[in-house]
Amino acid sequence: MIRIFFSAPGWAEYQPFLPAALKAAGIEAEIVTEAPEPASIDYILYAPSSLLQDFAPFTRAKAVMSLWAGVERIVGNQSLTQPLTRMVDHGLTESMVEYVTGHVLRHHLGMDRHILNPGHIWDPTCPPLARQRPVTFLGNGELGLACARALQALNFPVKTWGRSEKSIEGIASHHGPEGLAPALAGAQIVVTLLPNTPQTHDILSAQTLALTAPGAVIINPGRGPLIDDQALLAALDSGQISHATLDVFRIEPLPQDHPFWAHPRVTITPHIAADTRAMTASDVVAENIRRSEAGLPLLHLVDRNRGY
Ligand code: NAP
What domains can you pick out in the chain, each with its CATH number? Predict the structure, then answer.
């Protein structure tokens, strides 16, 4: 019998799924939501909103499994010496694909013109076809690539950019610092799905925002620090960027006095692009514990040096 410490909010959502998923994976487990005896715990399920900060007393723990995809709030924790995994789950990915596709189509089709039409203006201008609307993804990992493929299937010409070189069928793929300019050149819609690391901070700056097509749209469901807020506001005011749809911010909830709230061409969604779904995430956790118990390598391991 192994002992799992569920150190995250939302146990009620996992209760119908996690014990069943563990059982189906052949794992006999006791799940606790408090750990008065840390040395008795075999696995820790973790979310950043958990109060747990000191992992040192968990001397028996074989892994800490983040229920979130982004791990910037735990990856630098010096007391964490156990292997750290992050959440890669098809429910989360589906959710991000739906969010990104929906917001891209909103801007591509110019839906606001017809939804918000107080003057009842009859303007029969048709939008271009998707094949005429270049989209660039900064980040071509689990989420960026899944979204890129969904847009590719709708005929959008898609480019992606990542850290390492990749060959992706049907998608122009750039990498490294020198690949950023060609990735952004001509983009009419830019979607940022990078992790929050020192290397990705302000990746959208005055300099890089100027590389997109004039009037481009920014969609950021990645992390707030990817964008220099002041540079984005200036680019919105100059018209270089026509709209920004932002799901994530440097401070969350976004403070009421932040200029994004009042800006007419900023859409704010409250970090809802892709939530971990207990229904599907439970299977991912169970499979990883099964692998660990069988002596197999853990899936979705975080590279502490890279920070994601
Ligand atoms: P992932 O699979 O780790 O992909 C990360 C991507 O970023 C990879 O393509 C990686 O390149 C690239 N990258 C990292 N550092 C880079 C750098 N310095 N220069 C260029 N490219 C770099 O992560 P994911 O699962 O797709 O998730 C991406 C992010 O989405 C998460 O970290 C999280 O912050 C965010 N997220 C947001 C929500 C939400 O609700 N808003 C939900 C889930 C996740 P390589 O592949 O070459 O390493």
Answer: 2-89+276-293 (3.40.50.720), 90-268 (3.40.50.720)
- Kindly state the helix (H) or strand (E) to which residue 293 belongs, with its residue range: helix 278-293
CB atoms within 10 A of CB 284: 22
Is the CB–ligand 1 distance for residue 140 below 6 Å? yes
From the alpha carbon of 273, which atom of ligand 1 is closest? 40
Distance CA 188, CA 68 (A): 30
Question: What is the pTM assigned to this prediction?
Answer: 0.97
* DSSP run (H or E) holding 100: helix 90-109
* Helix extents (H) in 125-258: 142-153, 176-184, 206-209, 229-238
Residues with active-site annotation? 223, 271
Structure-block tokens of residue 263: 């800006």
pLDDT along the chain (308 residues), means of 10: 97 98 98 97 95 96 98 96 97 98 98 95 96 98 98 98 96 97 98 98 98 98 98 98 98 98 98 96 98 98 96
Total Cβ atoms within 10 A of residue 44 = 25
Q: Which atom of ligand 1 is nearest to the CA of 196?
A: 34
